[in-house]
Amino acid sequence: MSQYRIRKPELADAAALAALMAAPSCYGNTLQLPYPSLSLWQQRLSAAEPLKHALLLETGAGQVIAHGSLWRESVPRLAHGARLGMAVHQDWQGKGVGSALLQALLELADNWLGLHRVELTVFTDNAAALALYRKFGFEQEARLRAYALRDGRYEDVLKMARLRPFPLRQA
After folding, report:
1. Number of helices and strands in the chain (H, E)
2. What pLDDT score was predicted for residue 1?
3. Residue 160: which residues within 8 A CB-CB, separation 6 or more?
4. Residue 41: in which H helix or E strand, if any?
């Protein structure tokens, strides 16, 4: 995917991320609220969060088309794990963008953060996301009924996780 660039988000990306997350296909399939403000994204990007590792994917022309994050657990006995969240611009879904971003996030998790467990929550009707996560080794661990309010209805989600076997590679 050489026509794309993956990098850490910066404060200057706040408007692009607010626009990305304003699309119903993004906020509707995450636990975000509609109508994200510029100031919300400015706050998120300027906050010092040492346990959060975010990446974005942009086109060669600099258009932000996907965003993802890993949130490491702060409890010492859970520090081997992180929660994953991601969103892809509605015009770029189904074109390999999600795969490229998820691959980069998992490479970060495996090779730089030493994570054993990456987990996520996904709506049961999000077939494209489910296929993507399964492609990268995520397995369903639980179904949570009436978990999240979405468009006036309580919807079920799946809890999925990908476990990386130990021991880590030896040099």
Report:
1. 5, 7
2. 47
3. 119, 120, 121, 122, 133, 138, 139, 140, 141
4. helix 38-46
Give 105-130 pLDDT, tens digit per residue.
Answer: 999 999 999 999 999 999 999 999 99
Owner of token pair 């999000």: 126
**CB under 8 Å to 124, separation ≥6 — which residues?**
143, 155, 156, 157, 158
**CATH number of the CATH domain containing 13:** 3.40.630.30
Average pLDDT over residues 70-91: 94
First-to-last alpha carbon distance for the chain, in angstroms, is 29
Domain assignment present for 26: yes
